[in-house]
Input
Amino acid sequence: MKSMKQTTRNDYARRIARVTEAIFRDPARARSLEDWAALANFSPFHFHRIYRAMQGESLADTIRRARLTLAARALAMSARSVTDIALEAGYENAQSFARAFRGFVAVSPTQFRATHRAAADFTLPSPVVVTRKDAAMNVEIVELAPIRAHLLEHKGPVASIPETWAGLWRWHMQAGLAGRALYPIGVCYGDPEEDCGFRYCAGLAFPDGVAASGEVTIADIVGGRYASYRHVGPYSGIGAAFQKLYGEWLPTSGHEPDDRPALEIYRNTPYDAPPEGLITDLLIPVK
Output
């Protein structure tokens, strides 16, 4: 009899495989992140993190690979012009296609066509879901009460998120709230490695009665069941820890991600702990 862990992993793998099969079946078809998430029956908030963790590449990378694979087959098996094939693959012109194609197979489209004229020389690979080895992670299922937080929404590239945190700390000092925050909290919608649909808010939890001002707003973060993992170490390791949660722990846990954002609860800060002593609770909402 299969274990619960293996059954859950197989279920996740089948759902991710539905996506990769759809991509390779019709790579030119445009779909939204919500469409892909629905196909895999995952929450849009967490689908791409699960996909990237299990596949080892982003959704955009898979689509690009599928389009270039079909383009390679068209070059090998037809006499169509490079421009027509480039446009079908989703590229604006033959030049941008040629650059991407050279990066894919290390030769130009013309060179590839000259050396792969027979259909037997090039076959379309089947999409394969990556199987990863489980890693021991001390994860607890916790019941979190609703949290009222003062949030500053991040605007700009992911790399500049620390600037948003710096802006929130400046606001709390200028508002005369130094020492009153209970704890900092990060609220994450989507995958920071995927531009489409990603949102992040830096937040501070205060006792009741603290007003917001400027770009800082007050929001209620929904409580409920969360899978909680305590990350100890520099903030630079948070992304990798989340990837292990989504790619290794979650598919073998027997749990499903819920339609709520992931959270980062900071138990101390760089002001009172060295990088190796920073403690951050990473929480994924589960059903």
Observations:
- The longest strand covers residues 224-232.
- Strands lie at 139-144, 147-153, 183-189, 199-205, 217-221, 224-232, 262-266, 279-285.
- The chain has two domains: 4-121, 139-285.
- Residues 4-25 form the longest helix (22 residues).
